[in-house]
Amino acid sequence: MVERYSRPEMAEKWTQHARYAAWLEVEKAAVKAWAKLGKIPQEDADKIVKNATFSVERIEEIEAVTKHDLIAFNTSVSESLGDESRWFHYGMTSSDAVDTGVALQMRDSLNIVIADVKMMMESIKVRAQEHKMTLMVGRSHGIHGEPITFGLTLAVWYDEMARHLLNLEQTMEVIAVGQISGAMGNFAHAPLELEEYAMEELGLKPEPCSNQVIHRDRYARLATALALLASSVEKFAVQVRHLQRTEVYEAEEFFAKGQKGSSAMPHKRNPILTENITGLARMIRAYAAPAMENVALWHERDISHSSTERFWLPDAFITMDFMLHRMNSVIANLTVFPENMMKNLNLTGGLVFSQRVLLELPLQGVSREDAYRIVQRNAMKVWEEIQAGRATTNEAGESLYLNHLLADEELRKSLSEEQIRECFNFDYYTKNVDNIFKRVFK
């Protein structure tokens, strides 16, 4: 993971020290459980819980010889203890400590991501309320459609993030699972009660039926949840990038005093933050593939999953945390240009009102086919005039499309001038915004 993308709170969850600290936490929970079951002396258990420690440097030194990280860890910890060290890692297999330790890391990291999502939702909500009635044009296929508000765009983002929040909370239930079931997961050397006591101590649920590892469909659920979240954040970023295009210029990332956009072109103000987010989303989605491929391990276990998880777990969490904070900053500080939004809304000479006219004609007894033909015929005239460079409004400020409709004799047989002009009222398109907001921001 590139260092510049690391936020300390999340990065610290995935250091080598944090990894071994999680293992030690699991081992101590097992010792406490053995003592509770009366299988080891309480005095020895207390000594282990109080005194057990490790050295990352010493573990690496031992591992260079043993070629086994968990054995090196156990040896390092045993060197900090006395005779009571015989109870350390008693009745356990490597994955009991490793996978349960990773569960602690995933749980704590996912809590940070969940907090990030809530933070971003709050920022979206504030900006949505601010721009609830800020008119802009809605686009499909990149082409102007009908009037909407920027607040509605942000409400869509909020609602999407709410779904991710629920998914992440449900994913937490899936991944916050540990095991102390011994080699092959048969509990031959450690009773189920030991696992139950230890997991209660750690704040995890026991894996109902493990083999020798925590099942990797749980990890895949996490990877796909993060990939989906990253994809939505990218969706928002792409929209900001489009809005910042010179030809559009309805919003832009905050441009700080002294900031520079190009080494060659001093005028440039580039959407670098959201472009960065787009790239990082591609990386997080890429991690979903190895996570899903790790589900199919040989028999009770192999270690083909281990090497990939040392990459994708810390990288996915650290990158996701960074992305969410970066996107939150973009949203909170986004510069919005309502005047340009209105300018673009009027860019097509009133064509955005075509459906309103279309829907009025059937109310007057006109067939939908005839109504569509009349409305489209006049719309195509406007397109031709726009292509020819003609102004989109007349001297009185009336749109080209309104002028053509008022001059259409066939249309005027069904709609009066007042009825046609009423079709060009923006209030028609914002009448339900408050009710939509009530749905979204419950």
What does this entry show, briefly?
With 442 residues, this protein is mainly α. The protein has 19 helices and six strands. β1 and β2 form a beta hairpin.
Can you tell me about this structure?
The protein is mainly alpha-helical. It folds into 2 domains: 11-340, Up-down Bundle (Fumarase C, Chain A, domain 2); 351-423, Orthogonal Bundle (Ribonucleotide Reductase Protein R1, domain 1), CATH 1.10.40. It has 19 helices and 6 strands. The chain has helices at residues 8-11, 16-36, 42-51, 56-66, 69-78, 94-130, 150-175, 192-202, 217-243, 272-293, 304-332, 338-345, 354-363, 368-387, 400-407, 409-412, 417-422, 427-430, 433-440; strands at residues 135-140, 143-149, 177-178, 205-206, 251-252, 335-336. It has a two-stranded antiparallel ribbon. Strands 3-4 form a two-stranded parallel sheet. Strand 1 (135-140) and strand 2 form a beta hairpin. Helix 13 (354-363) packs antiparallel against helix 14. The protein is elongated. The two termini are 38 Å apart.
